[in-house]
Design goal:
The complex is a heterodimer of chains A (330) and B (537).
Chain A (H helix, E strand, L loop, with lengths): L9 H4 L6 E5 L7 H4 L7 E5 L9 E5 L6 H16 L3 E4 L5 H11 L4 E4 L13 H10 L1 E4 L11 H12 L2 E4 L8 H10 L3 E4 L10 H8 L3 E2 L3 H11 L4 H19 L10 H9 L7 H10 L8 H13 L3 E4 L3 E4 L3
Parallel strand pairs in A: 3-4, 3-7, 4-5, 5-6, 7-8, 8-9
Antiparallel strand pairs in A: 1-2, 2-6, 10-11
Chain B lengths: L1 E10 L2 E12 L4 E5 L4 H4 L1 H11 L8 E7 L11 H11 L11 E3 L2 E2 L5 E2 L4 H10 L4 E4 L4 H5 L5 E4 L3 H10 L1 H9 L2 E3 L2 H14 L2 H13 L11 H13 L3 E4 L6 H6 L10 H14 L13 E2 L7 H5 E2 L4 E2 L1 H4 L4 E5 L6 H6 L1 H6 L1 E6 L2 E6 L3 E6 L16 H9 L3 H5 L3 E4 L17 H19 L11 H7 L4 H13 L4 H18 L6 H12 L12
Parallel strand pairs in B: 3-4, 5-8, 8-9, 11-18, 11-19, 12-15, 15-18
Antiparallel strand pairs in B: 1-2, 2-4, 6-7, 9-10, 13-14, 16-17
The chains are: A alpha/beta (330), B alpha/beta (537).
Chain lengths: 330, 537
């Protein structure tokens, strides 16, 4: 691994964004939540405003390899929570972490990224845009000195900081043996609430979440659930929180019913669209499913391909990694 | 006495006639061969001396000079043994010089005087036909190959003494049959009558299909399901487009690739000669007969550059040329060295390879259909549940296939793993013969459209695309929107148009409609779902 790959360009180190501060555990500025844990770092490096002790904060975490369900939900929950004034803590990793933080910043909320490298190093490189945004509008925090390149051994350790800075942990998507569960373990040790987003039982991507729920984690059915859980611990946020959450809950109810057909769809399109489910499928699987239906008997593969492509171009269906297709979540 | 005998040589697959000049004159007894010869060509004098002595002809104590003209072209191979020996016999007055005129001689001599087969007979005899030579004498085993070259009388001789006897009597005077030379009839001479009549009837078109079935080759009927891959294969075959298959291990990628030749149209006479010439130069024609099936080359991924592109001190055709007019199948594409894959860029673009050596450039044709197969990640199961690879591993694996190579793939299709319920499925798919019939119909449309300028849609240049891929206004507007949203390059757009043309041809439609474009876009953009994450749609 070439170190210079990850380090920020020169112009950024010099005065771009807020200056880096080094805060020792003994100092008054040191975040209260962090000081409470047993293995609190001796010093932390922070760019941007320090996480305020009275602001409710939620860690939205999940797998790097995520499904589009996970992606959509991370966006939904993070933006709803951030809009209600909750601070989103995460690790700026690829997948759920990055998506949640982007969503939080996009609705004007605040977000804290805890890195497994120096605060002047952007890792992973694909999240460069998020890193820049966080420098402007959020906070970047690390226990590693500036210039430290990312290393595998740093990441589990930084997870304890993520859980420590949050009042509540929300797991969006995790496989059965996911690194996300390390954070959950820390959170349980530190006595934090853990919420998990339920997924299908056949879906390996959600297996970790479903297991957490069986072990007694809270079930995050709507963002409001999370806000309610936070209300108990931080009542001062109630007005803002309930406003934001009610909007979300209404939207949720609509979605809970039969998925509404997008307008402007002919019978052929409708047939294909209905067969493309929430789980990504390949063209081959789609074709077989269409053929199984009564009206789909006379459909040829070229026709299915044509309709599928048409719906993709109309942005009603999205394409996933591995050339799989699924309905676009609204 | 001085005499000239006609022989031939080849350079790449280009061939030319060589005048073998033999002079026997007074001087210190010695034998010289000149004319820019390779080692094995120069050694001919030893073989000739011994071979003639062993057939009862002792060389006179004279100065013998053999010159191979044009003397400035580098000549290799052992095909000049026979003409030099015949020239020597004529110069010694053992055969009449007049009777050796107008005959092409090719062949290697053994020390006992027996003739042995040589490489490159087909291009050499073709050069002779071009120059209007009417008769040729070739070693045993080369006759069939020579006979397909065109209008020429072909004799096979086993021994130098037979040739001598035949020439003493004179070939025209019936000496050939008497001396035991075998006449090899050209295809037109043997079944000229029946092909002439068949060509007039409709039955001709169907004939090759039956032939294929009779041979019991691998058939698409062996593959159950997998309709999307079958469709992609059909489109690729109809327009000669390059295809990439991505799928988990054991999903049938190799099986499908091996069945590709069975749905391609049979080789035409002209194509067969082109391909046979390449194989002849390598000495790889089986039983000396010409190529009737489309070549299918599947080099292992440890292949070197010389093996793939062609090379050696005297450059021999590589896999890309041996796959000319056929299929080059690269299994486990990312396992190939990146440099090797990048070497394919020139032949993919220009449909030929130029190999530069100190004494000149050699050009081999390399118009092949590239069929690639690969797994989506090192373990092979991504994005399935079983995948154990990290994102970085997968990225590294995929990056072995460079962008430019990927860009040249017209179709990309994922081959889903077989479901358990299909494991012992007895249901058979559509047979190759049926698919081939549709492919042939599509090719027929292309032939009509291009007349003789091009063969297939994949060959269309920018000018042809603007001429033959005319879109309705509405369709064009939509394609432009697709190009914008997916950030397609101009090359990608052209590929989509070529492919849409092929799909329309398969439908038997003259104009390209939106659903043709849509399907082409699907197959073209599939690769983006693996490589360009977050790119496109």
């Amino acid at each position: 691994m070439r170190k210079e790959n990850h380090s920020a360009p020169e112009w950024q180190k010099e005065g771009h964004g807020p200056k880096e501060r080094c805060i020792f555990r003994e100092e008054a500025d040191y975040p209260r939540r962090l000081r409470q844990i047993r293995s609190a770092p001796r010093r932390i490096y922070v760019r941007g405003p320090l996480p305020a002790a009275q602001t409710p904060s939620v860690a939205v975490i999940g797998a790097r390899k995520c499904s589009s369900y996970g992606r959509e939900m991370a966006r939904l929950y993070a933006s709803a929570l951030a809009a209600a004034g909750v601070q989103i803590v995460s690790g700026m990793a690829a997948g759920i972490d990055g998506i949640a933080q982007r969503a939080a910043l996009s609705v004007g909320g605040s977000s804290v990224a805890v890195l497994g490298c120096g605060t002047d190093v952007c890792y992973p490189a694909e999240n460069r845009d998020l890193y820049e945004q966080l420098l402007q509008k959020g906070t970047i925090l690390s226990e590693y000195s500036p210039g430290t390149p990312p290393a595998a051994c740093y990441f589990p350790a930084r997870n304890r900081i993520i859980s420590a800075l949050a009042d509540l942990i929300l797991v969006i998507e995790a496989r059965e043996r996911s690194g996300t569960l390390i954070t959950v373990d820390f959170a349980l040790d530190q006595g934090k609430d853990v919420y998990a987003l339920p997924g299908r039982i056949t879906d390996g991507q959600s297996m970790g979440c479903n297991r957490l729920i069986r072990q007694g984690a809270g079930i995050a059915l709507t963002p409001e659930d999370i806000l309610e859980a936070l209300d108990i611990s931080c009542q001062e946020m109630a007005p803002a929180a309930s406003n934001g959450s009610r909007g979300m809950a209404d939207g949720k109810k609509e979605r809970a019913g039969e998925a509404a057909l997008p307008s402007g769809m002919g019978p052929r399109e409708r047939l294909v669209w209905q067969q493309v489910g929430d789980r990504p499928i390949t063209l081959q699987e789609l074709y077989e499913k269409v053929r199984e239906t009564e009206e789909g008997k006379e459909f040829g593969l070229p026709e299915v391909t044509d309709i599928l492509m048409d719906l993709v171009l109309r942005e009603l269906i999205s394409r996933e990694y591995g050339n799989k297709y699924e309905r676009k979540a609204e | 006495m001085f005499n000239t005998i006609i022989s031939g040589a080849f350079c790449g697959i280009d061939s030319y006639l060589v005048q073998v000049e033999v002079d026997v004159s007074q001087g210190l007894p010695c034998m010289e061969m000149v004319g820019c010869l390779s080692r094995e060509a120069g050694e001919a004098k030893q073989r000739i001396r011994v071979a003639l002595r062993n057939t009862g002809v002792c060389l006179p104590p004279c100065r013998i000079t053999i010159n191979l003209s044009p003397a400035d072209r580098y000549k290799s191979g052992t095909a000049f043994d026979l003409p030099a020996a015949v020239g020597l016999l004529a110069s010694m007055g053992l055969v009449e010089a007049v009777k050796t005129k107008g005959i092409l001689f090719v062949g290697e001599l053994g020390l006992g005087g027996e003739l042995k087969a040589v490489r490159g007979i087909l291009p050499i005899v073709r050069a002779a036909v071009r120059e209007g030579i009417a008769v040729c004498i070739v070693p045993p085993g080369n006759g069939k190959e020579a006979a397909v070259a065109g209008e020429i009388r072909v004799y096979e001789a086993d021994h130098i003494s037979q040739v001598r006897a035949a020439l003493q009597k004179g070939l025209k005077e019936g000496g050939a049959e008497k001396a035991g030379l075998r006449r090899v009839r050209t295809a037109r001479e043997t079944d000229g009558a029946c092909t002439m009549s068949a060509a007039k009837t409709e039955g001709k078109k169907r004939e090759p299909i039956k032939e294929w079935e009779r041979e019991g080759a691998e058939d698409f009927a062996d593959i159950a399901g997998q309709e999307s891959v079958r469709r992609a294969a059909e489109i690729a075959a109809a327009g000669f487009h390059h295809m990439l298959m991505i799928g988990p291990p054991g999903s049938g990628k190799t099986m499908i690739a091996r069945r590709m030749p069975s749905i391609l149209p049979p080789l035409s006479q002209e194509e067969s000669l082109e391909v046979s010439a390449i194989y002849s130069v390598c000495g790889r024609l089986k039983n000396g007969s010409i190529m009737k099936e489309r070549p299918f080359l599947a080099p292992h991924h440890t292949a070197t550059g010389a093996a793939v592109i062609g090379g050696g001190r005297v450059p021999m055709p590589g896999a890309v040329s041996l796959a000319h007019r056929g299929i080059l199948f690269l299994d486990e594409l990312p396992e190939f060295k990146r440099t090797i894959l990048d070497m394919l860029r020139q032949p993919l673009e220009e449909r030929k390879v130029q190999i530069a050596r100190t004494y000149g450039n050699i050009e081999y044709p390399a118009d092949f259909m590239l069929v690639g197969a690969m797994n989506p990640c090192p373990c092979g199961y991504y994005p399935g549940e079983q995948c154990k690879c990290s994102q970085a591993q997968t990225d590294r694996y995929l990056s072995h296939v460079s962008g430019p190579v990927l860009d040249r793939m017209d179709l990309c299709v994922e081959v889903p793993g077989l479901k358990k319920e299909n494991l012992f499925c007895r249901k058979r798919g559509e047979s190759s013969a049926v698919i081939r019939r549709r492919v042939l119909a599509a090719r027929e449309m292309q032939k009509k459209r291009f007349q003789s300028s091009l063969r297939v849609n994949a060959e269309m240049g920018v000018r042809e695309i603007t001429k033959y891929c005319v879109l309705e206004q509405e369709t064009e507007r939509k394609l432009r929107r697709i190009a914008e949203t997916c950030a397609l390059s101009l090359r990608a757009c052209h590929k989509i148009l070529r492919m849409a043309r092929t799909i329309a041809d398969l439908d038997g439609e003259e104009s390209i409609r939106m659903h043709h474009i849509n399907e082409a876009v699907y197959y073209r953009l599939s690769a983006g779902a693996y490589w360009g994450r977050g790119q496109g749609i």
